[in-house]
Amino acid sequence: MINRLLFIFGLGLLVIYGSKAQTLYIQDSAVVFVGDSAIVNSTGSAENNGRIENNNQFIVDGDIQNQGDFFNLGNISLSGDWVNSGMYNGTMGGFTMTGDDMQRVFNNDLLISELIINSNDTVVLEGNMVEVEDLIDFRSGVLKTAGSNQLIIDNTADVRVPTPGSSYFEGRLILEGGSELTDAPDETDTQFKLFPLGANGRYAPITFSSIQENDFYQLAVTFITPNSRVPEPDSTLIGVSDESLYHVEVVTPGIESALVEVGFVDENLDESSFTLINPINADIKSPVVAIATAPEGPFTTLGGDTLTFETIISEEELFLADGIDKYVAVALAPRIPDHVDVFIPEAFSPVASDPINRALRVFGIGIREDNFRMVVFNRYNNVVYETTELNEATSIGWDGRLKNGNDAPRGLYFCVVNLLRENGTPEGLPESYKKPVYLVR
C-alpha cells in the first residue's frame, strides 16, 4: 500500500512483490511519480485511487484498476485487464499487452500513442472507442473488439505485423487517411493502408494503394470467413470463393478510389474452391479480385495480373466515392483475351485438381519453333527451369520442381519467354515477355 508521496528518480527500479491475492494499492491521497529513467515493476495487480505520473515503464503482472488520475507519458505493460473508471491521459504514452490468457481493456474513449500486442491469447477492447495515434505493433496474439467498441488507427500511425502474420485484428478496423485541410482535389495518397485482419486463426490482410483522395477520410474493413451467403459471379467470372470476404465501408467521405491487394493462398486454383460455377469454356483460369455491393453478389472483376508474395493486386481501382458499401472477394476468371496471342499464367499449383493448372506453360498461337526460349528464375535470380523446345514449353512446362528433383518452395518466381512469330511480329506486340508468377502449394 502506498499512502504517501513517492518519487522514483534516475535509473531507479522499484519492484513490488506480491501474489494474485496481493495488490499494489495507491490511496486517494498518494502520488506516484516514475521518472524518465525509472521502472515500477509489480508482480501482482495494481489499484490506483490517487495519482500516477509515468514517464518510463510501469509494469504490472496482473490487472490494473484506475479509479484516480493516471498520466502516462511512457509505457504501461500488463498481463491482465485494464479497467479505467477514473481519469486517464495517455496521448503520448502506450500500452503493451503481455498476457498468457485473455485480456480485456475497459476504457471509454481511450486515446493512446502506441499499442503493442505481445500476447499468447486474445486482447479484447471494450467500451466506446480506442484510437491509436503513432504505432500499433502486432507481435503475437489476436486483438479484437467487443460490442460497439471501435478501433481507429490515425493517418500517420505506423502499422506493423510479424512474418508470416501470426498476429492480427479480428473485427471492424477503421483507418484514417488524407488531410483535414487539403487544397489539392484528387490528390494521391502514396501511403499504403494496411488492414492486418484475420479470423479463426487465419491471417488475411487487405491493403489499399494508389489511393485517390480529396479530403480527410475514414475507411473501415471487416474480414469475414467463411462467407455465410452463396457468392454469385457475374457472366464474366467462372466462380467466387466463399473462403474469404472483406466488407469495406467509407465511414467519413474523402476517399475516391484505390487499388486493392488481398491474399489468395487459401483458395486453390481449380473450380473446387469456388461456388456457383459458370459454364465458361476456358483452358486457363486465374484468380482475380472481385467486388459486389452485397455479400451474395453478383461479383464483378477488378482483374489481378500483378502478383506478389501470397497476394494478388487488382488491375482496376475500387471506386469508393459513392459511399456505398463494397464487398471484396477472390474470384476465378477465364484468361487469354481475344486480342492476346501469347499468354503466361499468373499462378499455378502442382496439387490443383485441374491438370491444366498443375504446371507453368506458355499458351499462344503462331509461335515459331526456332529461336524460342523459356526461363524461370526464383527471387534470388537463380534459374530453376529452362527450355528451348516450344513443344515442351506449351505441353509440359515447369512442374514446380527444382533441377535436383526437389519441390520448389511456394512463392514468387519470374518467367522470361523469348519468341518469334510465324507471320512476323505485328506492331505493338513484344518478342520478349517477363512476368511474375506465383507457385501455390
Structure report:
1% of the residues lie in helices and 50% in strands. With 441 residues, the protein is mainly β. It has 3 domains: 1-170; 202-335, no CATH class; 342-439, Immunoglobulin-like. The strands form 5 sheets. It has a 27-stranded mixed beta sheet that branches. β31 (285-292) and β32 form a beta hairpin. The longest helix has 6 residues, at 390-395. It is elongated. Mean pLDDT is 84; it is low at 7-13, 15-21 and 180-190.
Question: What's the helical proportion of residues?
Answer: under 10%
**Major beta-sheet overview:** 27 strands, mixed
Number of domains: 3
Shape: elongated
Give the number of helices. Answer: 1
Which characteristics define this entry?
Immunoglobulin-like; elongated; 3 domains; 43 strands; 1 helix; seven-stranded antiparallel β-sheet
Topology summary:
Elements: E1 6-8, E2 13-16, E3 23-26, E4 31-34, E5 39-42, E6 45-48, E7 51-54, E8 57-60, E9 64-66, E10 69-72, E11 75-78, E12 82-84, E13 87-97, E14 103-106, E15 110-126, E16 129-145, E17 150-153, E18 158-160, E19 168-170, E20 172-177, E21 187-189, E22 193-195, E23 198-199, E24 202-203, E25 206-213, E26 217-224, E27 239-241, E28 245-252, E29 255-263, E30 274-275, E31 285-292, E32 300-303, E33 306-308, E34 311-313, E35 318-319, E36 326-334, E37 342-343, E38 347-348, E39 363-364, E40 373-377, E41 383-387, H1 390-395, E42 411-418, E43 432-439
